[in-house]
Request: fold
Amino acid sequence: MVDHLDLKMSYAQLVRLIRAEATATIQHAGIGSAGVRVHSGGFITIENGGLDVEGTATIVGLLTGSGTIDWWGPSIFRGTLNVTGNMATSGTLVVLGATTLNGDVALNNDLTLGTGRILAGPVRIDRAGSYGGRVYSSSILVLEAGNAVLINNDTDIRGILLTDGLDVDGPKNFRIAHPTKPGFWLRHGSTESPVSGTEYKGRLKLDAAGEGIVELPPYFEALNKPDGRTVQLTAIGRPFPVGADDVADGQVKVYGDPNREVFWHVMAERIGADFLLEEEIPAEATDDGRVGPWAAA
Reply:
C-alpha cells in the first residue's frame, strides 16, 4: 500500500488513476490566465474537431501539419515559412521573414511590386524610379516566345541588343542625340534590300602603272557568298577612266590613271542569312499584318 493524497490505495490503483487522468476528456472547460502547459515533449492532439482561437496563438517552436491550412483573416509570419502542402488564404497575407515555396504556385490575380524585387538568378524585376518597372539582367537576357514578342510603344535600349534574327514589321529607324542641336534627337532610317548585304568602302591611290590593290578584311571570303559581289569606283578630282577585276581571295585589283586616287565600294551577300522574300500573312493576323495573341484586341 502507498500513501497518496491521504488516500489509501495500491500501486496498481495509483497507475490506473494516473492513466485515467492522462486520457481524460475535457468538456466545456475554462482555462484561466495561467494557461495550459505541456511538459517534457508532450503534445496536444485534436481529433475530428477543430481549434478555435479568438485571441493570440503564439508558437515558439515548430508547427507541423499534414492537412490544409485554410485561413480567413490576416496572417503575419515573422520567421521562415516553408510550405510543402496546400495553403489557402482569402485575407491579407503578410510575410516578414524568408518564404520558401517548393510546390507549384498559381497566381490568379495581380502581383504588385512595392520596394521589393523579384530575383531569378542574374535576372531582376524591380521598380526603377521614373522609368516604372524594369527587367534587369547582369548576364544575357533571353526573350523567347513560340510566336512573337510584341513591343507596343517606344523601347529605350541603351546597351547591346543580341538576337539570332531580327524580324521587324514596319519602318526601321533609330534616333541619336543631335550632334549640333542640344535638346534634339537626330533620327535616321535603315535602307532596305531583298538580300542580307555587306558593304565595304575606302580610298585607294594607284601606282605609277595606274594599278592598285584593295585589301578587304581577312574574314571577307568566309562571311560572304562568292556570287553577287559588285565593285563601284569613283575618280577623285578630274574624271578619268577606271575599272576593276572581280573580287577574288579577299582582294580587288583596280585600274586607272597613274598616281591618281579613287573611292571604292564593294558590296556582297552574307552566307547563311537568306530569308523568305514573300510570305503569306497568317489567318490570325490583324488587318495591319501583326501576328500574335494581341491580334484579336
Q: What stands out?
A: The CA atoms of residues 71 and 132 lie 34 Å apart. The first helix runs from residue 11 to 22. The two ends are 91 Å apart (CA to CA). The longest strand covers residues 197-205.
